[in-house]
Amino acid sequence: MSDLFINLTTPNGHSYQQPTGLFINNEFVRASSGQTITTLDPATEKEIATVEAASAEDVDTAVRAAKAAFKAPSWKKLPATERGRLLVRLSELIEEKKELFASIDAWDNGMIGKTYELAMEDDLPDTIGTFRYYGGWADKSFGQTIETSPEKFAYTLRQPFGVVGQIIPWNFPLAIFAWKVAPALAAGNTVVIKAAEQTPLSILVMATLIKKAGFPPGVVNILNGYGREAGAALTEHPLIDKVSFTGSTTTGAQIMKSAAGQLKEIVLETGGKSPLIVFNDADIDQAVKWSHAGIMSNQGQICTATSRIFVQRDIYDRFLALFKERVRTASIIGDQWSPNTFQGPQVTRAQYDRVMHYINVGKSEGATVETGGEAFAGPDGKGFFVKPTTFTNVNSSMKIYKEEIFGPVGLIIPFDEEEDAIELANDTLYGLGAAVFTMNLRRGHRVAAEIEAGTVWLNSSQDSDHRIPFGGYKTSGVGRELGQAGFDAYTQVKAVHVNMGNDL
Ligand code: NAD
Asked: Which protein residues are within 6 Å of ligand 1, measured from CB?
């Protein structure tokens, strides 16, 4: 075993070899600068492992490898059906190791403040399903034939861009990896992807499966590294033809600027402050259940978390009482490994500090704390736990109303009429998700059409499916992932004009 693998055993008993290098050309290599990333279990604050962190020089090596792979016959001439077969094979290999993957991400993210159960039921099926789904798309992409005159016609080809640079966050490391890598490969691109520095482990195990599945060297290159150095070097690299980013709106704006010099194609999936509207004709028990899950699951670390809950005034008091009861009975805080745990730790101390800061700002702005409002003491006083927090008496000038907190902090706000609810829901710079609870079909569809968001849930929250396009309005993003839209985003259209006669 090379020194770029270490033996680890997860707290729930999976022993495995953890790669620690940068994955370039199907090999693990050391970082040129000697920089590293050390990752912690956020429930215990104990170190798990240290991995290599890419410098700008390493990014250059990876991009050049991806460029060479894009031009090589082993990828360029590979029939689309064979590309699809490789993706399906990868999905099978991931499935064989799904308990290990879920365990690593639960540990590292805890991660992600994520419980093992959530990783198993949500993140892994999404990851496996996405690779399988885009494996199916690879050979189902067609151009068009367009007649223009009796002697002329044109046809279109859908072609890959070349090398795609991809940057992902920590909150669903494997699923977001799949959302980006699977469609890019299905369309025939090659990839350099940078994981988030908070969760560097599972993606390196994924790298071993890329090789095992049979992808040629250089087709998928995987780097850990810091955003300002490795991330910036990737987005600025002249051989990168397209950038796809998921993370905060602030970083997304920087990436847009750095892509501007070369007019690079971009996809940005960024932040949110998503509304959830409960009308007085809703099934109130369902509305309470979904609105609790919509803001409190994954510790509130979901880009589409429905953090602003608007409730029609005549059912407001009843809803609030039921919501508080739901928090009391369902938001069980604990470590990642207990099946009873609903809420684990925030991913890092920085994220915990950020959430606690917002909670204190909310109090000082005069909002009323209905639940939580403070940290939760983990075992031995360790761990980045925050109690599920609910604020009322909130208004639209407050920071906690306007800004994304990315933690288990929900606001409950009354409204009077349907038009008021729509106005409140749209009163944000963001536009990622929105939920509407009503038993009135006409109203549900009417409001769904009026809300400025890339996704609207009628009588649910947070549903996500690799067959369905996903993305943001306003500052929540540019472009779409998943579904056919997600595949098309990794292709460009070429028009070929054909003259069969002698006319000009
Ligand atoms: P972040 O923007 O700080 O980091 C995300 C990624 O960008 C990381 O890999 C980081 O290393 C990299 N990065 C940081 N600075 C960079 C730079 N200057 N150039 C290039 N790359 C850089 O985001 P975060 O705080 O880690 O993640 C949480 C945010 O992600 C939240 O705002 C959340 O809403 C958003 N998010 C959005 C979606 C979506 O699909 N819309 C999904 C998950 C998370």
From this structure: 167-171, 194, 196-197, 227-228, 231-232, 235, 246-248, 251, 254-255, 269-272, 303, 404, 406, 432, 472, 477
